[in-house]
Amino acid sequence: MHIIYSEDHRHQDGTAELIDGQFHPPVEKPERAERILAAVREAGIGGIQAPDAVERRILEKVHDPGYLQFLEKAWDEWIAAHGDWDALPIDWPTRTFVQRLPEAIDGKLGYYSFDAGTPITRGTWKAATAAASVASSGARKVVGGEHAVFCLCRPPGHHAARDLYGGYCFLNNAAVAVEELLEGGSGRVAVVDVDYHHGNGTQTIFYRRGDVLFASIHADPRQDFPFFLGYVDETGEGEGADANANYPLRWGTGWTDGYDDALGAALGRVRDFAPDAVVVSLGTDTFDGDPISRFKLRSDDYLRIGEGIGGLRLPTVFVMEGGYAVDALGVNVVNVLSGFEDAY
Ligand code: OKP
Ligand code: ZN
Fold it and tell me: Could you tell me the pTM of the whole model?
């Protein structure tokens, strides 16, 4: 399968990330994409191509135009106010507050974000739009008849909602791929999100849509980020009723004691939905050695994930999300993709 990659990802390179009350070097760092690129090249997964720029029109299907304008200008407003250091929010319009956009950059950061662990840097807009371009171009290849494509996106996207950033995500790359597939003639699209964290952004973007199924396997939000979405009783609304399926699993879950069954159930839902194409939010932070996660998958288990998805025999767009154990990141991603190709 073809691989779409942009080296512009490296412009998202934060100085520090707020984790557990302390500043640490960011785990979401350029080396991640470089390791994955080296591994897929080495494994001969397919040819590597640069993307064409995503159309603003497609970004505006996924995101609020005011949010996009904010993201594009946030860095300039931040350095004018505070100088050259990562921009982080510190106040939010939570319960009891009025949802109104302030004019100061600190107010805007809080209005458009849901966590303090996602630095906006000088290059964030450039990197985030490059990742969206990767997803857009990859999906268009599938529209053009390719059976599958790997979009090597960075920064990730599945936490980004219509007008919210957080969880290292700014633009929802998977949602961009969905919109390209729908525009290209797919009547129905299923998103399968196997990242360790619930894809709260993708879920909310499609929550009222009957033509897009969102199925996600992730850490139980009672225990882990993003905490406030990803529960079993979130099943969709309006035309999207029954087109959302969450499979939360407890800390410590491995392949045989929960993951395999959840994957089978999620893929069963996809089959029943009978989509024309699939978008996979591919995170490998379910790995045993991941520094911020608590599942217990081993590298071989990623072959089984790929085989399960390949067994659907549907045109598939893989969109890279999380995975922070950099030494194993390459092999884990390669295993998903080669398992898929073997089963397709
Ligand atoms: C992005 B993706 C660790 C805090 C981490 C944010 C996690 C974002 C994950 N205690 N907070 O889904 O891999
Ligand atoms: Zn994740």
Answer: 0.98
